[in-house]
Design a protein that fits this description.
Blueprint lengths: L1 E6 L5 H7 L1 H6 L6 E3 L2 E5 L3 H10 L1 H7 E9 L2 E3 L1 H8 L12 E7 L2 E7 L10 H5 L3 E6 L6
Parallel strand pairs: 5-8
Antiparallel strand pairs: 1-3, 1-4, 2-3, 4-5, 6-7, 6-8
InterPro entries: DUF5804
Protein name: DUF5804 family protein
Pfam family, one: DUF5804
Length: 144
């Protein structure tokens, strides 16, 4: 269960987290990895990722534009959806109608779009073509 933190433009989130004694203390048991769009923090469980997110909330508000949870390879979900998954209010398969794509270009969010029900990111070559990386994201129904 990876926690992906997409940084705001002009922010080097990895360096910011390393420079702060408080965040270093919080992240001492984790191995944050720098990626083109921010930081990935590997974690073994969804509950652990949600707990970690609560601990670094101040950094999220200040330096992060989007928080995503990797729930299966190449499938991410929003924070609200992750909370509902953790609370067992829904299953990952329930969210095929509330999916979207986030395109990353030059390390930042370039564009977003909603996907048609039961489609895949390969069905949107025009969207994917202009991006360095495309994330498939599941959203909660409350995020419409």
């Amino acid at each position: 269960m990876n926690l992906l933190l997409i940084q705001k433009e002009g922010i080097d989130l990895y360096q910011t987290l390393l420079a702060s004694e408080t965040s270093r203390d919080i992240l001492r048991f984790y191995r944050p990895e720098r990626v083109d769009c921010g930081v990935i923090i590997p974690n073994s469980t969804l509950g652990g990722s949600l707990s970690l997110l609560a601990e670094i909330r101040w950094y999220i508000r200040r330096y992060v534009v989007s928080v995503l949870f990797e729930v299966s390879p190449d499938i991410y979900c929003s924070e609200i959806f992750a909370g509902e998954l953790y609370g067992r209010n829904l299953k990952l398969s329930d969210a095929s109608e509330n999916a979207g794509l986030i395109g990353i270009k030059d390390g930042f969010i370039y564009r977003k779009m909603r996907m048609e029900t039961n489609s895949k990111k390969e069905d949107y070559p025009d969207f994917c073509g202009g991006c360095d990386r495309v994330l498939e994201v599941r959203y909660s129904r409350s995020e419409d």
